[in-house]
Task: structure prediction
Amino acid sequence: AQSVTQLDSHVSVSEGTPVLLRCNYSSSYSPSLFWYVQHPNKGLQLLLKYTSAATLVKGINGFEAEFKKSETSFHLTKPSAHMSDAAEYFCVVSDPSGGSYIPTFGRGTSLIVHP
Amino acid sequence: DTEVTQTPKHLVMGMTNKKSLKCEQHMGHRAMYWYKQKAKKPPELMFVYSYEKLSINESVPSRFSPECPNSSLLNLHLHALQPEDSALYLCASSPLGTSGVNEQFFGPGTRLTVL
Result:
């Protein structure tokens, strides 16, 4: 069975400082991993995805994530936070366990950006 | 057209009402999903249609009834709901069916309040 753990429920940073949102996964297969962002009262938007190509994945809005198999991690980073980055972030894993590729969501990390 | 649309944006209904939520996509995606999301929580999967066939039903109460009239449309029929069913209902689609890895595209959601 697949699972995903987001290690922090809240992360607080100042504008202009780096962002690190942590995600660990568990999978019996070679998983695909995704990060989504959700602004208040909105739907989810895909930031980036890893599907067994390059381990360093670049996404939208300056975000990137590195797939580390040895650490079963897929942490999300951004060099410099912007006020508009304040939102909920979800790490998602997908593999063929159970016979179909149904995504499993992490609990979410709320990113707070201070001026 | 690269978006998923949902109507209505907001819905208030009594426990004896019957109402429907609608979701539409014109991207040719072959899987469509219904999620329920409570405040500060990740989306919870309710139903998945893959190639217009119901492939996943996550033990959802029968007061929720999904329908997929064609490959572009997904409905969720609501009847005799309870106040605890109040939530944001998200629709998503993905290019492949559930037999392959693919990212999801989310609609903005319908905010449902049950009185």
Remarks:
- The two ends of chain A are 41 Å apart (CA to CA).
- The longest strand of chain A covers residues 87-94.
- Chain A has a mean pLDDT of 93.
- Residues 35 and 91 of chain A are 5 Å apart (CA to CA).
